[in-house]
């Protein structure tokens, strides 16, 4: 009797060990699937009904998740293509509207009518800028080629971009001060980096309540930040959302400048974020360090 009980305990112990081994194997397969982004289904060696059902349910859940992901990617691609087509189609009628506005302005003699037409022109120009951002975002979002990453001196590169926009900055009475202790070299795509910096400068032109400070630092990442004083605290968690506007009462629509900056940063393996500190809004860009 004792021998039978002992044999039963040994068999049970072996079964438990085999069960644990199978659970560990399932866990390793799930980790490998996640790390290598494969679609390999979960397999078992021990023919246990409970574990077979478990593996079957896991595989079904994984299959459903893959299907949802494929549908989401397909829908996102369709939306991007729609945005690209829409932004292109909007350009032609807007160009015609602006052309007729110019002709009408030349023929008007009444000062009141001229003033109202100039207001209409101003709004048409704003719409044109928004459409251009719309088109630029769709262009970068649908771009299939990989970024051409090369060594770039961040401080010198930012200085060049700022210099090109000095006339606009002077018109708005905004000065940009660049602070850098040591040279910082990033691994980045020149064209993408130009777009990021230009969009950050334009954001400062539209919303800054003071001069702008740009800091350049490089430790684990090659980073730079645009900071300026703003009238009130903003929602830094939502600033990079497309068309986000902090103050709904403002006539100026939210744009895509920061969304484009975030998109391009991530395409180069970096990040974009925002923070609020002592009345100052900081937009932080981090890129791979060379």
Automatic annotation (TrEMBL):
Annotated ranges, domain Histidine kinase: 85-290
Stored InterPro entries: HATPase_C_sf (IPR036890), HATPase_dom (IPR003594), His_kinase_dom (IPR005467), HisK_dim/P_dom (IPR003661), HisK_dim/P_sf (IPR036097), HssS/ArlS-like (IPR050398)
Enzyme's top EC category: transferase
UniProt-annotated location(s): Membrane
Keyword Aminoacyl-tRNA synthetase: no
Mode of membrane association: Multi-pass membrane protein
Reactions performed catalytically: ATP + protein L-histidine = ADP + protein N-phospho-L-histidine
GO terms of molecular function: phosphorelay sensor kinase activity
Keywords of the record: Kinase, Membrane, Phosphoprotein, Transferase, Transmembrane, Transmembrane helix, Two-component regulatory system
CDD domains given in the database record: HisKA
E.C. no: 2.7.13.3
Coiled coil segments of this chain: none
Cellular component terms per the entry's GO annotation: plasma membrane
Protein name: histidine kinase
Source organism per UniProt: Anaerostipes rhamnosivorans
UniProt lineage: Bacteria, Bacillati, Bacillota, Clostridia, Lachnospirales
